[in-house]
Amino acid sequence: MRAYRTLLRLFPASFRLEYGEEMCAVFAQRRRDAPGVVATAWLWLETLGDVLANALRVHTDLLRQDLRYTARTLRRAPGFAATAILVAALGVAATTATFSITDYVLIRPLPFADAHRLVMLWQGDSSGTYRNEVSPANYRDWKAMSTSFEAMATYRNVSMNVVGDGDPEQLSAVSVTADLLPMLGRAPRLGRSFTEVDVREGAPGTALLSHGLWTTRFGADPGVVGRSVLLNGEPHTVIGVMPADFRFPSRETQIWTGLRFAEDDFQDRTDTYHYVVAKRKRDVSLDQARAEMRVVSAQLERAHPQDNVKVVTMVVPLRDHVSGQARMLLKALFGAALCVLLIASTNLASLLIARGAFRRKELAVRTALGAGRERLVRQLMTESLVLAACGGALGVMLAAAAVPLVTRLVPNALPIAAVPPVDFRVLGFAALVTVLTGVGFGVMPALRASNDTGAAGLREGTRAGSRSERLRSSLVIAEVTASVVLLVAAGLLIRALWRVQNVDPGFRAEGVLTLRTTLPLPRYEKVQTRHDYYSRVLDEVRALPGVSHAAFTTGLPMVVRGLIWGVELPGEPQEPGAAKPVSLRYVTLGLFDALGIPLRGGRDVHPSDTREAPFVAVVSESFVRRHWPGQDPLGRQFKVAFQDRTVVGVVGDVRVRGLERPSEPQVYLPLSAGRRQLDHRLRPQGPGDPVSRRRRGARPRRPPDHRARRSSAADLRRPDARGGRRRRYGPALGPGARARGLRRRGHPPGRHRHPRAARVHGVPPPAGDRREDGAGSAPGGHPEAHPEAGRRAGRGRRGGRPGARLWHRQDAASAPGRRESG
Amino acid sequence: MPHPRSDALALLPLPLATFHILLALADEDRHGYGIILEVAARTDGALRLSAGTLYRSIQRMLEEGLIVEVRERPAPELDDERRRYYRITSFGAVVARAEARRLTELVKLARAAGFAPGRA
Questions:
Q1: 3.40.50.10610, 3.30.450.20, 1.10.10.10, 3.10.20.30: which CATH number matches B5-112?
Q2: pLDDT score at B4
Q3: What are the sequence ranges of the domains in chain B?
Q4: What confidence score (pLDDT) does residue A574 get?
């Protein structure tokens, strides 16, 4: 009989209390009537099914009753109902929206086969302070020497001009090895994947189109497969079209080409420009893979002590390819949303307690009519859950509307769409939050109200006791705690924002327009041809009304583009890998004026600083402090980019890595002494908004033979215009905030406000597009002759990345495919 | 409380267990197990109500006013104190009659269609 009584606990307590004893009596009678063991066993089976089925029905009956009662109750108090629903909706919406972003970015599997086994391999230092892309030689050796991976592929980012069949267009392209797509488990929706034939040295060019490019440029023509397109002047055969949901390595990739290695590519292990993706074998853990790659790294260091000194292999899950900053921000945001939910719940609980005081008489009457405490608690909990459910439904709608507003929190480093989907996963979370909210804010008031339904409740003017006061106090404490946490977090954020806003970037963004140019090859292969183009553009732009300054540079401030080099000073011993880094940019005369970078001493670069003249450089103040503290730097020499250079000028420091991070000292080299393709930067002067002025046509005219497509001009204050991906994570660093911050930094008004000033700039094409002068000349980014220059230039002609680097530090926030040069 | 006929019609069709319980209580008050036995006897054992079905039905029938619990109990030597006795109400009788009429009409229709024995 004990077993039967236990079984009866499946019924609601009120039902059990009413009929439990009688049911036990009936069951006992039937047991007595059952002849034999078999009949008894059958009785038990029958009883089990009976209890399970009828307990569920009784619960359903009660729920139906409670819902009807709740509907009547809430109809009588529409103000209360609306308030409670809105408060619940706010909490659920905040939590659901932040969950959808956090889950999308940090948790849910990437849309690839066995995504949890995909890893990225980086070259890093033993301390783990930085990580680099990988040299082709190291990639080849890793692939050959490791056994932890069932597949390993590599890719690199290139920028490609496509001409013919419409307007010239600059595409975000990625060159991939043939094994990449099979490893990701994805295949084209039209056509075929790359094969080993496509990626052989000397093979004809092949390309896979993204769905977006296929739609926009080729009109979704299914016959596009087999057509030839000119990419950077080289014919490529379209071999297929990828599905719409395929994004790799980032959502901005428009076209994939076959990556064709040449034997020369494997000569220099310090030239790191490839991203490596691998898939762990099923029976190999991440730690095992890391351990093996440590051994492989050590072997390669012994085999190549000059190039691979202190180089270790970092194995990072592809899913974790999110910067620590973004991760922290998302977690903080989710935590803040949970605090909002807690506050909403405590507010709702307070509302229900207050309402409970009004309902004491009603509840006392119900108790007097025979309703037990369980029945009252159940009824009150139903009310709470109904309110929470309505709030949850409204909250999901609000969250769905809010999610697109916070898509800037989705790093474009990840191969996922920009907008998280509101799918069953998110809805399930919202439902869970709703139930927890309903229970959370409903249970205490329900227990409290059901405790206070005695005869005293029927008397007018009775007051709640000390228990009620304690409950209210607890709720207030919880709410205050959550509020304090939110306030402190918000305060810290505002303080951090304030501090960042008060950091002098070292340049002025107001009134600066930037413009990016990419010159097509082979038309602009000759250095002189490029220089002529740049000079012509600058002359024409400077002649425009309203333009005060115009100049070219290889990289904007706060954009992880441009070069990072190690410098050598006369008399200082250099150990491999220990060169002190500087930020290196090639510029033309007038850049410092255009950007408001103060000249502290000496002179600007000048067109007369050619390769026939002595090599010169302009350095930043921090460079002087680091290398020649308290000394006059003018006339001193140092070696960078393979040449000894004489300091002819000193300028103010620029925060090249952003406002929150320390930056390397800067070195500026004259374009006229280099071989590099450059951006241009103009500064129109005239009334009105520089952007709108630009739209009205204050742009350099395109030479008749210029088939390259410029990317659109943009205001330098806009972070997107500067490619500052890291900024996207920081709402504190939004364009408005930054503009305000720049205005607050205490510059003289005359220097800050340039209502008539606007500048335009451009950034260089990615290194893979750059081509240098003929054989024997230096690669892009290395303007002077160098023993290795010839083969690097040769790589450049094959579409490889000509820019070798002595030193490059990976920006932790940057993405595969997003970082250019270094 | 008098129940209008419309209330009775609103309850139709009755669940099978409810109708049989009303029939079992038609001639005398019975406790739960007595109802089970009576229903089984009336149906020649074809319908044997389980305890769960019985008491869930009784709960609903009490709420709907079809039956009431009665305080009169048999002699102590014949009684079990855990037992509770139920009686059909006049409204319950009205509802039972309405259900019987509904079933009769249904049988007539079935008979007319040749699905039931007898003359149409």
A1: 1.10.10.10
A2: 57
A3: 5-112
A4: 63
DSSP state of A599: E
What pLDDT was estimated at residue A140?
Answer: 92
Q: In this structure, are strands A563-567 and A580-587 parallel, antiparallel, or unpaired?
A: antiparallel
Global pTM reads: 0.62
Least Cα separation, residue A40 to chain B (angstroms): 14
pLDDT at residue A182, rounded to an integer: 93
Q: Do B51 and A58 touch (CB under 8 A)?
A: no
Residue of B nearest to A18 (CA): B59
Helix/strand/coil percent split, chain A, to 5:
45, 15, 40
Contact B32 A50 (CB under 8 A): no
pLDDT per residue over A112-132, tens digit each? Answer: 888 889 999 998 877 666 677
Residue (of A93, A241, A268, A141) closest to A181 by Cα position: A241
Asked if B52 lies within 8 A of A15 by C-beta distance, the reply is no
Burial tier of A598 (Cβ tally within 10 Å: 0-12, 13-18, 19+)? middle
Judged by a CB distance cut-off of 8 A, whether residue A54 touches chain B is: yes
Contact B68, A10 (CB under 8 A): no
Contact between A333 and A601 under an 8 Å Cβ cutoff? The reply is no
Q: Do residue B56 and residue A57 have CB atoms under 8 angstroms apart? A: yes
Return the residue in A19, A46, A64, A375 with the most chain B beta carbons within 10 A, the one to mutate for interface testing: A19
pLDDT at A562: 60
Residues of chain A with pLDDT under 50: 676-713, 717-822
d(CA A338, CA A436): 12
